[in-house]
Amino acid sequence: MIKLQQLSKHYGNIVAVAGLNLHIKRGEIFGLLGPNGAGKTTTIRMLTMLTWPTDGKALINGYDVTRDLNKVKQEIGVVPQQMNLDQELTARENLELHGRLYKQPTAERQKRIEELLDYVELQERADDLVSKFSGGMKRRLMIARALMHNPKVLFLDEPTVGLDPHTRRKIWDLIRRMNNEGMTVLLTTHYIEEAEILCHRVGIMDRGQLIALDTPEKLKRKVGEVAVESFEDTETGYKLFSSREKALDYAGQVKSNVLIRDTNLEDVFIELTGRKVGD
Ligand SMILES: Nc1ncnc2c1ncn2[C@@H]1O[C@H](COP(=O)(O)OP(=O)(O)OP(=O)(O)O)[C@@H](O)[C@H]1O
Ligand SMILES: [Mg+2]
Fold it and tell me: Which residues line ligand 1 (CB under 6 A)?
């Protein structure tokens, strides 16, 4: 569904994306995880034709993002990292505008607007100005707008950043529901939990490169499923083990306080990069 071959983006001397090779399957929820500046947004911007690749190739459902611009535009929906709704318009007017830009026939456009307002639970606020919306409402409206023209692939850049836990879960439900109805989803996130819960596969990006790519379960198994944290003076030490027995063995030998827990994707990230997500 989405194919990247040696996809690269350079800004002068900065290598934002350094030759990505990736194949995302139809119906998959795929997550790009990585620290600030890893190249996640740049990757999405190339796939959504907002910036031109320096090198390499990207295909969406067989269409080339540098050649088949109109075809790609119909295939994809985009929810960008920055809020870019028209704040001086109402929710309904924002959807209306998008439908018109996509030249949707009036009847189809009106029907779709009502369906989507229901879908993201904004029907009651449909005629309020977006400037009066909360962050979560704006995000839901951005998702509705991205779905207006019935795309097959949805790109979401940090879909839940800055939202409260309850609203985040609502967005997760929405993403799952769209995926159950056949949508292929590519999202980026800083939230480890989000990637673990939502994504069928995760790509960990660092300095423009993919340093790991697998299901969350397999990534955790590869580095060891049980983590032992030990607290000594001011430092926290981590060690990962393939079984609880081995972890207990080690914990028994450590003199400081220890905590034994399941490995998470953050441990995978630290193990692979030596740094924490967000450092
Ligand atoms: N328009 C631009 N001009 C110059 N450099 C850029 C531009 N956009 C991105 N970069 C650089 O490319 C690198 C990757 O940035 P990008 O926004 O893709 O990272 P990210 O993984 O999305 O980070 P974040 O988690 O902070 O959103 C960074 O070093 C950034 O400074
Ligand atoms: Mg980004």
Answer: 11, 14, 16, 34, 36-42, 81
Sequence spans of domains, the chain: 2-216, 219-273
**Helix, strand, coil shares of the chain as percentages rounded to 5?**
40, 30, 30
Report the nearest-CA residue for atom 26 of ligand 1: 36
Which protein residue's CA is at the shortest distance from atom 3 of ligand 1? Answer: 11
Tens-binned pLDDT, residue by residue, of the chain (279 aa): 999 999 999 999 999 999 999 999 999 999 999 888 999 999 999 999 999 999 999 999 999 999 999 999 999 999 998 999 999 999 999 999 999 999 999 999 999 999 999 999 999 999 999 999 999 999 999 999 999 999 999 999 999 988 888 888 989 998 999 999 999 999 999 888 899 999 999 999 999 999 999 999 999 888 899 999 988 777 778 889 999 999 999 988 887 888 999 998 888 888 887 766 555
* Token code pair at residue 77: 């929906």
Nearest CA to ligand 1 atom 16: 39
Q: How far is CA 47 from the centre of its chain?
A: 13
Token couple for 76: 């994809």
Q: Which atom of ligand 1 is nearest to the CA of 205?
A: 21
Ligand 2 geometric centre to CA of 40 (Å)? 5
| CATH 3.40.50.300 for domain 2-216 | yes
